[in-house]
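Figure 3 (text version): structure tokens given as input.
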């Protein structure tokens, strides 16, 4: 058996499991883009080794099909039990008592306020709080259609900022929000606790659509897609008025252009259509449909249209533009959006940004894409490739997990690892005594991966020792010495 002095020349690492729980309202995307972002983040986090991901949803929000699909990605969906006379999202304040949480991820006020209540429970008080921000309420309030929008917008902003101050890590979605919240928190001790997230492409869902995009000529009807919630509150902030007024411009009016608006509340299509027609668009050029809740129907929609526009006057990020880019469609987006900030420094990115709220400028840009549609499709393919290189889900989630690992365990997820000599020469030091999870017993789980030996052989055996023991388990003197050595060496 090798001596302890010889063994101490080797490098070691302990690989624990990082348990991450995301608060969510659903698994699918029936509530819009934020559910999409939450699901994609969970999926990409679950792909990282030694990370266990779960979604906590209100009881009844997910059916068995949802849970089975989540399991296929290595994600477990947990139900927060119903509370009588309490709104469903607040049920999330009470996770299952036997659930393991190292990190809890909330987003916005609606799905972030619950974390402060969760952390007041003894079993969850030491978990780390990650707060994802996806809106700039004060900026949005300038265009909102309800009463007292400015005062309500300020209150929403400071609620969001206070949640950020309480969290251990703030994750703004996109460069626009990163800059805004860094300013709000600059005087706070949280000013450095940021990890910016710029969503990667949705290639799993829409990547195969690129090859299906066909160029149009002057004889074809050119279909322009405008997506969003068609309620009164968001009519101006989403720039719907800009889009329909662009179709009243001489460049588009009465010609082979069609505006397809998808986002009407169920049963309100006629009402939404009437409001849009009041902005001057020709009756024959406008089609209105209800909000698309199915991802499969979203794929069908992208195959039906020729360009997607997002003329928002203010947009935290703008996932619909990213989805369209993922599907290979040309896009035009307003400059006051996180997505525009993300692509403005990427080659060809500026071609997709409209730095104006003037409908005539939007009409001009739509006409320009149609006139050179074949080239626009090729440029979009190149833009997509550049975006993929710049903003990768895997790299960003890896950076986030590394930060979380340090917060939870005080070290990165990839410290120096054990040498193969120890695996080969000290087999008697390994206890294969396995024990079930039990909250009343102490269990240590040390996972040591063998790497290149310091003896100079330069080989990678790739062997792994799993050492499990709990208090009350009998171990030999050699095993005890080995355990003590491992803990002190680390």
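Below: residues designed for each position.
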């Amino acid at each position: 058996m090798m001596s302890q002095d010889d063994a101490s020349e080797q490098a070691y690492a302990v690989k624990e499991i990082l348990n991450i729980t995301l608060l969510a309202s659903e698994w699918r995307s029936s509530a819009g883009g934020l559910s999409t972002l939450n699901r994609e983040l969970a999926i990409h986090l679950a792909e990282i080794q030694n990370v266990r991901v779960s979604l906590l949803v209100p009881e009844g929000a997910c059916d068995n099909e949802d849970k089975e699909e989540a399991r296929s990605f290595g994600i477990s969906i947990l139900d927060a039990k119903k509370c009588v006379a309490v709104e469903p999202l607040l049920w999330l304040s009470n996770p299952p008592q036997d659930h393991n949480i190292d990190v809890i991820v909330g987003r916005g006020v609606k799905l972030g306020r619950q974390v402060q209540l969760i952390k007041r429970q003894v079993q969850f008080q030491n978990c780390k709080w990650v707060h994802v921000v996806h809106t700039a309420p004060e900026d949005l309030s300038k265009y909102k259609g309800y009463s007292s929008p400015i005062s309500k917008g300020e209150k929403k902003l400071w609620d969001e900022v206070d949640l950020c101050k309480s969290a251990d890590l703030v994750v703004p979605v996109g460069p626009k929000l990163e800059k805004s919240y860094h300013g709000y928190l600059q005087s706070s001790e949280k000013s450095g606790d940021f990890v910016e997230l710029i969503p990667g492409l949705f290639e799993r869902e829409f990547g195969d659509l690129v090859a299906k995009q066909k160029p149009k000529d002057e004889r074809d009807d050119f279909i322009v897609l405008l997506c969003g919630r068609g309620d009164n509150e968001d009519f101006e902030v989403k720039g719907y008025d800009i889009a329909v007024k662009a179709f009243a411009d001489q460049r588009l009016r009465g010609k082979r252009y069609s505006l397809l608006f998808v986002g009407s509340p169920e049963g309100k299509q006629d009402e939404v259509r009437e409001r849009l027609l009041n902005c001057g668009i020709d009756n024959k050029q406008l089609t209105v449909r209800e909000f698309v809740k199915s991802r499969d129907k979203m794929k069908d929609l992208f195959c039906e249209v020729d360009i997607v526009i997002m003329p928002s006057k203010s947009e935290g990020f703008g996932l619909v533009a990213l989805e369209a880019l993922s599907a290979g469609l040309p896009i035009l987006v307003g400059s006051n959006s996180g997505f525009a900030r993300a692509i403005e420094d990427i080659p060809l990115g500026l071609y997709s940004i409209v730095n104006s709220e003037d409908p005539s400028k939007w009409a001009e840009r739509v006409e320009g894409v149609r006139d050179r549609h074949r080239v626009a499709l090729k440029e979009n393919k190149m833009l997509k490739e550049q975006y993929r290189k710049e903003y990768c889900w895997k790299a960003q989630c890896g950076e986030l997990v590394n930060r979380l690992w340090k917060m939870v365990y005080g070290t990165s997820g990839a410290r120096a690892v054990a040498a193969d000599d120890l695996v080969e020469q000290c087999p008697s030091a390994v206890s294969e005594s396995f024990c079930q999870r039990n909250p009343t017993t102490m269990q240590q789980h040390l996972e040591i991966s063998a790497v290149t030996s310091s003896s100079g052989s330069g080989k990678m055996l790739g062997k792994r020792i799993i050492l499990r023991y709990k208090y009350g388990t009998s171990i030999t003197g050699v095993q005890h010495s080995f355990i003590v050595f491992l803990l002190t060496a680390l």
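The domain at 18-200+393-409 is CATH 3.40.50.2000 (Rossmann fold).
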